[in-house]
Amino acid sequence: MPKIRWSKVAVFLLCLGPFLWLGWRFWNQDLSANPTEFIQHFTGDWAIRLIVVTLAVTPLRKLLHLPALIRFRRMIGLFAFFYASLHFLTYLWLDKLFDFQEILKDIPKRPFITAGFTALVLMIPLALTSTAGWIRRLGGRRWQLLHRLIYGTAVAAVVHYYWLVKSDIRLPLLYGTLVALLLAYRVGAWLIARRARATPRPSGKRIEPAIS
Amino acid sequence: MLIKKPEDIRYSEVTPKSIYWNRRKFLAGIPAAFLAGRELLSPSARAWAGTKLNNLVKSPFSTTETQNTYNDVTHYNNFYEFGTQKDQPAKYAQNFKTDPWTVSVEGEVAKPRKFSMDEILKLAPIEERIYRHRCVEAWSIVVPWAGYSLSALLKQVEPTSKAKYVAFESYWDLKQMPMARPEQAGIKFPYVEGLRLDEAMHPLALLSVGMYGETLPPQDGAPVRMVVPWKYGFKSIKSIVKIKLVASEPSTTWKMSVPEWYGFYSNVNPNVNPVRWNQKMERRLPSFFQNHPTQIFNGYGDQVASLYAGMDLKKLY
């Protein structure tokens, strides 16, 4: 048990590390000549990285036979939401000075902002229902279904990144490839599980779907 | 041509003294000491400390707005030949060889010829011009450039009546610029830009050889570049090797890349908002906030608006 607790503390600190690093650079006024852009890129980068890590938890559990990794998924997902929220806050505050009239025009007008906003909004119900109480209230199956919204977030985040870069598409393509692989894994796992269900085993035991 | 004084700036546009002094204090602190120490240790990092330009002539075109620091201006910019991130040119352009250097001026001209850097430096008195510089990414800075009007160079070659546009080309050499590949940067090389001849002949269009009283550092387009202060920054082409006078509108790099986002003219204009850019407001660096209303022609409308009389600037953006 203590081992699990300490590993959770370690993952927590790892996820918080970028935020502390940003705070340190802010304190030292070391955020380049354009601090807002620096913070925006930094929080956006960490949001999309952690979204990818969250999506990688299930495949890694299965492929590496490390079921215990599931303990970290909620925390990593919540940190992804944390960085995405900071990212959105820099837009609301530093770019738009909370001029909501302007913001409401901007979000639908600029496709890259529409996509980024979609990615964030899809995460809100996941963050709210991330507690054990909500899993119980919704029931495992329904909770799992709801939390597949993260696939939408991942796709929208990649599209947001791809649409916003001026010409150097290497990083959006990298994240796009990773998300495509992680989603393809789920499709593959689902197909395998379906085939297994279609041909009942002599024992009659039901095989649990490999997706979650 | 009637030359008017630049519009006066409002007090709200000036960076508050406290912020200004805070930055100074910081710059004088530990990070600056660290940078200075590193510079002493590494001779290549000293290359950007340019040669002093003496006897700069003051210009009536200069703004009195607060200038950005040398460190900010030279460590935050785009020069895709040296990487697509804003901190990369300062790192990767340090060994850029700019001597010897020639600029070929050719095309629809009576006297095409090549100019050496020595000739360019002596062609006309070098002025200090403190210009606002507005990036298409909605941030702006104030930079003291050194140079003279491009017209002084163009007059030397005597453009013919067929010359209607000026096409510029940057230096491109994969040995010196290993990142300047289309598959990495996503744009074509060499970088090309263009102006209509009357824009190029406008006295504000500056052929720049220096900044902050020194020759240009490599990451800012050494040894010679354009500065067109009423247009978005990407129009101000760096490290020029060729200037060609032509009869029709030349191709320009960013327009070729994404024509919906960038036009040939690319005049600073708060009323023209292609889908990627919201140009209504800008951020005067190093401020955090986008709280500075964008001015049409970047505040140089009194001087240049007449160039575009009768043109629909929303269509010809």
Coarse morphology of chain A: globular
Alpha carbon gap, first and last residue of chain A: 25 Å
User: What is the name of the CATH class of the largest domain in chain B?
Assistant: Alpha Beta
The topology string of helices and strands of chain B comes to: HHEHHEEHEEHEHEHEEEEHEEH
| Largest inter-chain contact set | A-B, 27 and 35 residues
Distance between the termini of chain B: 25 Å
Beta-sheet strand percentage of chain A?
Answer: under 5%
CATH superfamily of the largest domain in chain B: Oxidoreductase, molybdopterin-binding domain
Computed CA radius of gyration of chain B, to the nearest angstrom: 19 Å
Overall domain count of chain A: 1
The low-confidence parts of chain B are 23-49
User: Into which percent range does the helicity of residues of chain B fall?
Assistant: 10-25%
Kindly give the count of domains of chain B. 2
What is the chains' assembly state? Answer: heterodimer
Supply the CATH architecture of the largest domain in chain B. Alpha-Beta Complex
Task: Walk me through the structure.
- The complex is a heterodimer of chains A (about 210) and B (about 325).
- Chain A has about 210 residues and is an all-alpha fold.
- Chain A has one domain.
- Helix content of chain A is about 80%, strand content about 0%.
- Chain A has nine helices and no strands.
- The radius of gyration of chain A is 19 Å and the shape is globular.
- The model of chain A has no long low-confidence stretch (mean pLDDT about 95).
- Chain B is α+β, with helices and mostly antiparallel strands.
- Chain B folds into two domains: about 15-45; about 50-255, Oxidoreductase, molybdopterin-binding domain (Sulfite Oxidase, Chain A, domain 2, Alpha-Beta Complex), CATH 3.90.420.
- Chain B has ten helices and 13 strands.
- In chain B, the strands form two sheets. In chain B, strands 1, 4, 5, 8, 9, 10, 12 and 13 form an eight-stranded mixed β-sheet that branches. Chain B has a five-stranded mixed β-sheet with strand order 3-2-11-6-7.
- In chain B, β8 and β9 (about 215) form a beta hairpin.
- Chain B is globular.
- At the A-B interface, α2 and α4 of A face α1 of B.
